[in-house]
Amino acid sequence: MVKTLARITAAGLMALAASTALAAPMNLKIAFVDPLSGGGASTGEAGLKTFQFMADQLNAKNPDLKLEVMGYDNKLNPQESIVQLQKAIDSGARVVVQGNGSSVGAALIDFVGKYNDRNPGKEILYLNYAAVDPALTNAKCNYWHFRFDANSDIKMQALTNYIKGKPEIKKVYLINQDYSHGQAVRAAARAMLKEKRPDIQIVGDEVAPLQKVNDFSPYIAKIKASGADTVITGNWAQDMALLLKAAGDAGLQAKFYTYYGGGAGGPTAIKQANLPDHVYQISEGYPNIDSKAGHDFETAFRAKTGQELTYPRVVNLMNILAKATLAAKSTDPKAVAKAMDAIHNDTLYGKDSFMRPDDHQIFQPIYISRFGPVDTKTVLDSENTGWGWTGDGVVEAKDTILPTTCKMDRPS
Q1: Which H or E element spans position 352?
Q2: Residue 11: its pLDDT value, please?
Q3: If DSSP states are collapsed to H, E and C, what string results for 167-217?
Q4: How many CB atoms lie within 10 A of CB 380?
Q5: Could you tell me the pTM of the whole model?
Q6: Which residues pair with 394 in a beta bridge?
Q7: Please, what is the angle between helix 152-163 and helix 180-196, to 10°?
């Protein structure tokens, strides 16, 4: 009788242990590999806070998930990025997220592809939230890489469609960073402006070393001397803020069409430069879109982190990662990638977005907004400047689609 009772008790404990194990949340470690020091630090820190905020939100919402985001400083260097990613893998990371620097993105795609080939059953995923060189989802595309930002060509397509209806734009100056992203921006601007507005003069086209220029006044002097009424730039972080500062110091009143004017430090630089309604941004979102969900999220995010949301696409990325993981019922990157391959999901602002399986490029609405004085009683400002982003146009996701040359090898 005692032995029988012991067997029953043991069986019960085993069943309880098994049910507890089944009920345990799925753990997924995410390595954030981006600059946390140097000229890109403000951008990297803003991104890390956004990923960690989203992990907390999703963990609270989904008891079956436990997402952990770990920060690794890559110093904006491709080789250092690989070193840091290997450290993250050794610590159990199965997903890497990165965005700042397409040269870093290219290095990560190459590393992840080779790593997964050599380590079947231990694969990792690379989720790209901001490296926008078109080559990353064309010539360099890889099954294990998913991009959650519109690439440079998609953004330029939206921007030049907007410029097409602005006859007052007559002289354009291109200034970009001297690496793959900057080169892609200038090439797309030249080609698309020639096609859509052949009357526009491109009066300057140059590149500057990435995050190494401390004074952009010589560049601004050349822009001013050219007579340009419009500047197009893909600059980001310190290179964006210092470019605007120099424009203000020189009294340049040209319009700036930017990819990243709303990044950390950008709004303050625009206000200090006294360029009201002169700086535009092409992005997947901004704080004052007419969306209750977006407004509520922005308010909660600011209250928790002390910063505004500069990466709506990180919200979209993390929501899709959680959705794919729950659908796969697994944190195995192979299962998650399969669930994410052609996924649809609403953006933060309630609009459909979708992943193209051909190249793993996401498509989502693209907004054009401008920065200037706002009524802070009804409109959210940025960086406590009293100025904010307001809408100037939107391109729906289906109208942003461009073809891809990707020839993707898929795992068996």
Answers
A1: strand 352-356
A2: 55
A3: CCCCEEEEEEECCHHHHHHHHHHHHHHHHHCCCCEEEEEEEECCCCCCCCH
A4: 17
A5: 0.90
A6: 367
A7: 30
The span from the CA of 183 to the CA of 192, in Å, is 14
How many residues does this entry show for the chain? Answer: 412
pLDDT tops 70 at residue 358: yes
Q: Which residues contact 75 (CB under 8 A, 6 or more apart)?
A: 35, 37, 38
Q: In the numeric block, which tokens belong to residue 20? A: 């507890």
Q: Who contacts 168 (Cβ-Cβ below 8 Å, separation ≥6)? A: 229
Which residue has tokens 């064309």?
A: 138
pLDDT of amino acid 7: 56
Three-state DSSP class for residue 399: helix
Cβ pair 354, 271 in contact under 8 A: no
| The two three-digit tokens of residue 34, written as one number | 């981006």
Pick from 33, 118, 94: nearest CA to 333 = 94
- pLDDT one-digit tens code per residue, 316-334: 999 999 999 999 999 999 9
Nearest of 193, 198, 185, 333 to residue 260 by alpha carbon: 185
Q: What is the DSSP letter of 70?
A: E
Give helix 292-305 / helix 41-61 axis angle, nearest 10°: 110
Helix (H) or strand (E) holding 368: strand 366-373
The encoded tokens of residue 178 equal: 């001297």
Distance of alpha carbon 10 from alpha carbon 27, whole angstroms: 28
Amino acid in position 336? V
Pairing of strands 230-233, 255-258: parallel
SS3 content of the chain, % helix, strand, coil (to 5): 45, 20, 35
The average pLDDT across 67-95 equals: 97
3-class secondary structure, 44: helix
Q: Are 208 and 219 in contact (CB under 8 A)?
A: yes
Q: How many CA atoms lie within 13 A of 143 on its CB side?
A: 19
Range 109-113 average pLDDT: 98
pLDDT tens track for 179-202: 999 999 999 999 999 999 999 999
The number of angstroms, rounded, from the C-alpha of 391 to the middle of its chain's C-alpha atoms is 20
Only one residue has tokens 């998930």, namely 65
